[in-house]
């Protein structure tokens, strides 16, 4: 706890939200400029590899790539690649603000998975947040509405679910593996999984399109570093509230670049989803404090 710097952690997470929103904006822009979806995914990951290797070589830390859990890394990469398909597909199918809001369902799914998979006790506060969050999703989806594509809603909600699945895997890997090791193997294995699609989808790119792909890979790497750094200096439940700033950036990008504003249902449903995430973060923070007090009392 001596390394905790909560204000710095909040600022890093705030900047991470801006960079992530920019990643999804560039994804949507790249697709609109004729870059195939499979290529967007591949280059997002492949460009990360030389960046990490150069950094580790310059800092003399190549040894951190040694791992005793290659199977777990491969499994995380498999599910992470599936999640990336949905995470990058949602902003292509939906207005940026809508896809961002649906991504906020990740903490809600994390609660459900904690109860079902990890057999953790979930009390009335977090179950109430789950119900509130899914009510918000229904408002945003507004069955029968022409403003939000049903396929886009399915993709956006599935993206939130996959983020929650990967979060459980990262919780396990984080006990023994440095964050940069997991980021590297995710990029490596996902690039290998996506590469076979390139002969069927790859097209010629001009300088502008290559610029988008390079920006996508670089910004994605920066976002992952910022997220990791924020968790180094602050608790998950404390910094997570800054994730909701992405709604501001995505709305601004949607308006300024794509001339899209979210429909009225998003303005009504988004507060419910955000409130659900806030309740979960607050409750997780309280439970963490209670566990710390119990551990202190037991050691004393």
**Globular, elongated, flat, extended or rod-shaped: what is the shape?**
globular
Overall pLDDT confidence: 83
Beta-strand level of the residues, as a percent range?
under 5%
Count of the separate structural domains: 1
The low-pLDDT segments are none
* SSE class: mainly alpha
Structure summary, number of beta strands: 0
Biggest sheet features: none
Please work out how many helical segments DSSP would assign: 14
What is the C-alpha radius of gyration, as a whole number of Å?
19 Å
Entry summary:
With 300 residues, the protein is mainly alpha-helical.
Account of the protein in words:
The chain has 14 helices and no strands. It is 78% helix and 0% strand. With 300 residues, it is mostly helical. The chain has helices spanning 6-32, 37-46, 48-58, 70-93, 96-103, 106-116, 124-141, 150-173, 179-194, 198-201, 207-233, 236-239, 246-258, 264-299. The model has no long low-confidence stretch (mean pLDDT 83). It has one domain. The two termini are 18 Å apart.
List keywords for this structure.
0% strand, mainly alpha, 300 residues
Strand and helix map with partners:
Layout: H1 6-32, H2 37-46, H3 48-58, H4 70-93, H5 96-103, H6 106-116, H7 124-141, H8 150-173, H9 179-194, H10 198-201, H11 207-233, H12 236-239, H13 246-258, H14 264-299
Helix pairs in contact: 1-11, 1-13, 2-9, 2-11, 4-5, 4-8, 4-9, 5-8, 5-13, 5-14, 6-7, 6-8, 7-14
């Amino acid at each position: 706890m001596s390394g905790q710097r909560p204000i710095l952690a909040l600022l890093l997470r705030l900047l991470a939200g801006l960079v992530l929103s920019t990643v999804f904006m560039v994804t949507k822009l790249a697709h609109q400029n004729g870059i195939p979806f499979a290529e967007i995914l591949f280059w997002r990951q492949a460009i990360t590899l030389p960046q990490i290797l150069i950094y580790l070589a310059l800092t003399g830390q190549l040894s951190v790539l040694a791992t005793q859990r290659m199977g777990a890394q491969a499994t995380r990469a498999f599910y992470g690649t599936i999640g990336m398909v949905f995470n990058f597909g949602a902003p292509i199918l939906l207005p940026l603000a809508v896809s961002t809001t649906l991504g906020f369902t990740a903490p809600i799914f994390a609660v459900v998975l904690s109860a079902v998979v990890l057999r953790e006790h979930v009390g009335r506060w977090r179950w109430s947040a789950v119900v509130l969050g899914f009510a918000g999703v229904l408002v945003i989806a507004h069955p029968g509405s022409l403003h939000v594509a049903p396929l886009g809603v399915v993709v956006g909600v599935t993206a939130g679910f996959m983020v929650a699945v990967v979060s459980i895997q990262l919780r396990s890997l984080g006990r023994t593996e440095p964050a940069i090791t997991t980021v590297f193997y995710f990029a490596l294995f996902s690039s290998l999984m996506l590469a076979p699609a390139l002969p069927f989808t790859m097209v010629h790119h001009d300088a502008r399109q290559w610029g988008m792909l390079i920006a996508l890979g670089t910004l994605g790497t920066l976002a992952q570093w910022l997220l990791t750094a924020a968790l180094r200096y602050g608790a998950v439940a404390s910094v997570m509230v800054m994730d909701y700033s992405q709604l501001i950036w995505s709305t601004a990008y949607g308006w300024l670049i794509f001339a899209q504003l979210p429909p009225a249902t998003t303005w009504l449903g988004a507060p419910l989803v955000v409130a659900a995430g806030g309740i979960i973060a607050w409750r997780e923070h309280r439970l963490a404090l209670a566990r710390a007090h119990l551990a202190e009392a037991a050691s004393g």
